[in-house]
Amino acid sequence: MTIVPSAATKRRSALIVEPLPALSDNYIWLLHRDGEAWVVDPGDASPVQHALQKRGLCLQGIFLTHHHADHVGGVHALRSATACRVVGPAGEPLPEPVEPVAEGDTIEALGQHWRVLEVPGHTAGHIAYVNNAPLDGPRWLFCGDTLFSGGCGRLFEGTPAQMLASLDRLAALPGETQVCCAHEYTLSNLRFARAVEPDNPELAAYAQACQARREVGEPTLPSTIATELGINPFLRSREPTVRRAVQQRDPAARSDVEVFAALRRWKDGFC
Description:
Layout: H1 7-12, E1 16-22, E2 26-33, E3 36-40, H2 45-55, E4 58-63, H3 69-72, H4 75-82, E5 85-89, E6 99-101, E7 106-109, E8 112-118, E9 127-131, E10 140-144, E11 147-148, E12 151-152, H5 160-171, E13 178-181, H6 186-196, H7 201-215, E14 223-224, H8 225-231, H9 240-249, H10 256-268
Parallel strand pairs: 3-4, 4-5, 5-6, 10-13
Antiparallel strand pairs: 1-2, 2-3, 7-8, 8-9, 9-10, 11-12, 13-14
Helix pairs in contact: 6-7, 9-10
């Protein structure tokens, strides 16, 4: 699926954002305008190289959110072929050379200013990128494996408190923000979400719409922050319906962090 601004918006901004399927269930996000491109988390070089050739694009840079192999595996090949910039989280082991960035840094790319948000939890140094309040186009969030549609990343290196705080940061973004996650996990996440909140009508409708998209081979992404606030149990862990469901399984979970941690453990063992 290609996400193209409306005709009115396109006259002001030609930024185009596309998810490139990669590996078994990854998305590499391709951003381009005026023949120039950046990509986010290229775990495999081949889909990127094919897309660049097909669209006649010159790769200018790579955004990395974290160090896992399925997000950085294509960096060496792409950098060798194009001499592009590589930007990634300071403090994580990445394919060097990388321009290290941290909270508060801004990268100018494709006519946009991209702000770095530190969102640890999935990994210790995980970051996200969001463009600064564009007046002439969508706000895009590239969140790697921190936030998924209907879910969140596993806690491989961080703590429940860190992940909850990171998700709170993302949840505070404007509702229309386009959420560009790095995996097509939506349907499995929604099965869990419906186990947590079986009577959530917004969730039921969203699950049906996502199922229809997948049946015709379309991605479920991007989502929006507004959508996730209505359907994602990890952004809704303070909601009474979610708290009750968690506490029925783990009565000892009382604080916000304890409830979130119990919810994440529930998802880890969910079939």
